[in-house]
Amino acid sequence: MNFSTKQYFKKAEEGNYAIGQFNCSSADQVKAVILVAQKLNAPVIVGTSEGESKFMGLRQAVKLVESYQEETGLPIILNADHTYKDAKDIQNLDKIKALLDAGYNSIHFDGSVLPYQENVKWTSEVVKMCKEKNPDISVEGELGFLPGASKVSKEKLEFKEEYFTDPEKALEFVKVTGVDRLAVSVGNSHGISADEPKLDFDRIAKINEKVRDYAVLVLHGGSGIPDEDIKKAILLGIRKINVNTELRAAFTIALKDYFIKNPEETTPYKYLQASIDAMQKVVENKIIVFGSGGKAGSSF
Ligand code: G3H
Ligand code: ZN
Question: Is residue 182 part of a domain?
Fold first, then answer.
């Protein structure tokens, strides 16, 4: 998948919009994302977490996305999301090697659970390894901790002051590691929980002011944040937004509804269509809110 992923984010910076990363567990979900991207002529990122890519297969995910790219002409990024999420016991970078060999054109290394210096060390190594293999690859690092997980829960999440990304540290982190993108903790969380997320807009602005010459900002936990808050965050410099839980929920609820109405159905292409349609609605609304519709362009 050889096109400049950097150009993709540079355009988002110039145009003041954010590119959506939509997490997918299956080919059906990838199809839903691409259909909307095509309809709205939007740049999109297909995200696969470690669990999602394990289920799909690394090479299979790459080939699937490549085939859509060839067919649609859209610049579709395939991002390995939260690689080494449990980085506490990290020994080597075998997982990164496997992703690069398979052909992923974007990697998110998540060293957020590591002590700062360890995070810097491993993230720098990942950047070096990725750029040696493919200078056009886009690498995301993470600084600050996000509570929660990509599911719907009634729990209340705890936000400790130490979770939040410090603007000064963020500057040092991007300068030393050389990441293209920085995932930040600014009141966002993974999943949909009891309380609505409250973004720290002031912090987003301060971090962006510091790092904008080096890296673009990424907002994880895009589910459940009010549209108006998302728009404000984009105005303050967020250029990539990750969405998973809302997609999972839409897909699954539609499937459950389908079987309540059609308990005898056994043909996958029939019962999966409702899920694909439901997921498309969520993706479409997100792309409109992110302002990335019509931005796929023809220059890739
Ligand atoms: O990396 C994936 C995202 O941060 C997903 O977050 O499940 O809250 O949408 P979400
Ligand atoms: Zn995330």
Answer: yes
